[in-house]
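ok so I'm stuck.
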Amino acid sequence: MERPPWRQRFKEYSEITELGPIARRYFVIGAFDGALTILGIIVGAAASGAGDAERGLVLTASVSAAIALAVSSAVGAFEAERVEKKLDIGTLERAMLTRLSEEHKGAFRFAAYASALVHGVAPLIAALPPVVPFLLLPFQQAIPVAVAVTLVFLFAMGAYLGSIVRERLVYTGLRFVAAGLATAAVLWLLRGGVP
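replied:
not stuck anymore, here's the structure
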């Protein structure tokens, strides 16, 4: 059975631009940013003594931060990749002493858009699940559940990366968890210094 034309083109463009590793990097960076941003909002709210009265504020701040981070990530990734791909095209054309085909240029444009999409969606994937407990549980119960959801996500992401390079999954997963715990600890300790 023959592949649909769009799948064939996706495969060709991905091979030409080595999109897989680029998209993986952007996903990890964006998801890590999303997870730690929401963790920061949640821990900051808990450290400041927020309660059920502030539930709406925490939800609004979390969703707003996730959306802003998604837009920032997508635009930043698109512009960075657009410039890098233009530089790549120029380098290749000078090395080959000829102009690249429109198919190659289309592949590079595709890579910039795909990178932007991945980097824009990744923070939302990581940032929104920790918000769900605040919709279902009393505020004080939602805080540890939301923190746990974030840490589980960080562990899964670290374990996934470890599996790619054949490192011990627990080790790489715990490294990501350690970053989340360190962030939460610093934010908790700052509560005494912020009026």
